[in-house]
């Protein structure tokens, strides 16, 4: 019997730096939670995962530790990741009456065999029977609706939380790729550092992310935006409110955005001429949360002289791609890596 003839018992997972998304064949995305775990330091037991654990970041007593166990798209804390995944898969499997699912998991392109093994073992420990891996740029392209198995070239720029990956895809494979460890989390740090330096105010990661999504931009906006934020005054140690503008955040993000644009241009320079001609016609697709930064598509289009499109629901592209692989396995089987593990 084929491994993939188990119907809805097949699941796709986007194991992201900031969020974990799970899809079930035939049901779509069934879970979307922050990749955060809170554990009891003494016992090692899980206190919370997902949204509940994210609320605890920076607020826990000494006995509890809340962390993000993923960094730059790969596992940084193996034990915490295993516990978090076990809890999340248990939740999904109980809700949908699934036992020992087959899993297709998105991983960064070019991760080491050791890192691949860590992902496989974590998913197996969480309760999966089989684990297949798919590179995230490929999963993103499939999730964005690109026909990756065709001879025509497609380009995807996946702006995640920990890593930005750029890939040119043709005939079911990645022809040229490039990546940079500047993505959503690094942009949040840029905002934190800018406000600390320019406003003498300390803010947390959650506030920085809110600022980025509300008024973050890659070029000046037609209408200037602003928002009120609260932080801790570094001189007095007391809470203080300030109003921050989109022009200030443009200044804060400019250096990192410039490096992302440069990475895209470097990838285009390495692209074979025949595929480059296809890209001029097909354009560049932006996926991942960073695709939502205002005017990033406009800036990339100006810098590359190519059309640039934002995928529908860019945050969900990787997990939607794993779901499409489950639904159309015969057509998309070549995009999976050959490595697998059995219990």
Task: Report what the structure shows.
This protein has 343 residues and is α+β, with helices and mostly antiparallel strands. It has three domains: 7-139 and 317-335, 2-Layer Sandwich (Nucleotidyltransferase, domain 5), CATH 3.30.420.40; 140-182 and 259-315, ATPase, nucleotide binding domain (Nucleotidyltransferase, domain 5, 2-Layer Sandwich), CATH 3.30.420.40; 184-253, Actin, Chain A, domain 4, CATH 3.90.640. It is built from eleven helices and 18 strands. It has helices at 50-54, 78-95, 113-125, 136-143, 184-199, 205-215, 246-269, 273-282, 296-304, 317-327, 329-332; strands spanning 10-15, 19-24, 28-34, 37-40, 46-49, 64-67, 70-71, 74-75, 102-107, 130-135, 154-159, 164-170, 173-180, 201-202, 226-233, 239-245, 284-287, 308-310. A hairpin with a 3-residue loop joins strand 2 (19-24) and strand 3 (28-34).
Low-confidence stretches: 1-8, 338-343
Inertia-based shape:
flat
Beta-strand percentage range? 25-35%
Numbering strands along the chain, what is their spatial order in the largest sheet?
A: 3-2-1-9-10
Q: Helix tally?
A: 11
Global mean pLDDT: 90
CATH class of the largest domain: Alpha Beta
Oligomeric state of shown chains: single chain
Fourth-tier CATH superfamily name of the largest domain = ATPase, nucleotide binding domain
């Amino acid at each position: 019997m084929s491994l993939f003839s188990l119907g809805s018992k097949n699941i796709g997972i986007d194991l992201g730096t900031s969020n974990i998304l799970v899809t079930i064949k035939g049901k779509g995305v069934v879970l979307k939670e922050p990749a955060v775990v809170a554990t009891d330091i003494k016992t090692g037991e899980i206190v919370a995962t997902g949204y509940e654990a994210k609320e605890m970041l920076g607020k826990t007593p000494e006995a509890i530790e809340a962390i993000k166990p993923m960094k730059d798209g790969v596992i940084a804390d193996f034990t915490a990741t295993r516990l978090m995944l076990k809890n999340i898969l248990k939740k999904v499997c109980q809700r949908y009456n699934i036992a020992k699912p087959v899993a297709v998991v998105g991983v960064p392109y070019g991760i080491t065999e050791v890192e691949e093994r860590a992902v496989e073992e974590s998913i197996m420990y969480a309760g999966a029977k089989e684990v297949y891996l798919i590179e995230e740029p490929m999963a993103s392209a499939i999730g964005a609706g690109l026909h990756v198995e065709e001879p025509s070239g497609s380009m995807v720029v996946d702006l995640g939380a920990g890593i930005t990956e750029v890939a040119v895809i043709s005939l079911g494979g990645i022809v040229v790729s490039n990546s940079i460890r500047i993505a959503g989390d690094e942009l949040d740090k840029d905002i934190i550092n800018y406000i600390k330096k320019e406003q003498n105010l300390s803010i947390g990661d959650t506030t920085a992310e809110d600022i980025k999504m509300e008024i973050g931009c890659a070029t000046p906006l037609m209408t200037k935006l602003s928002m009120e934020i609260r932080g801790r005054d570094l001189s007095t140690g007391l809470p203080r409110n300030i109003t921050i503008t989109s022009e200030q955040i443009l200044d804060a993000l400019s250096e990192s955005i410039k490096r992302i644009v440069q990475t895209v241009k470097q990838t285009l320079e390495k692209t074979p001429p025949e595929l480059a001609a296809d890209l001029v016609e097909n354009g560049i697709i932006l996926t991942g949360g960073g695709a939502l930064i205002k005017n990033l598509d406009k800036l990339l289009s100006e810098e590359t002289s190519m059309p640039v499109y934002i995928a529908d629901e860019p945050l969900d592209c990787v997990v939607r791609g794993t779901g499409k692989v489950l639904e159309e396995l015969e057509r998309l089987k070549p995009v999976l890596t050959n490595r697998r593990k059995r219990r």
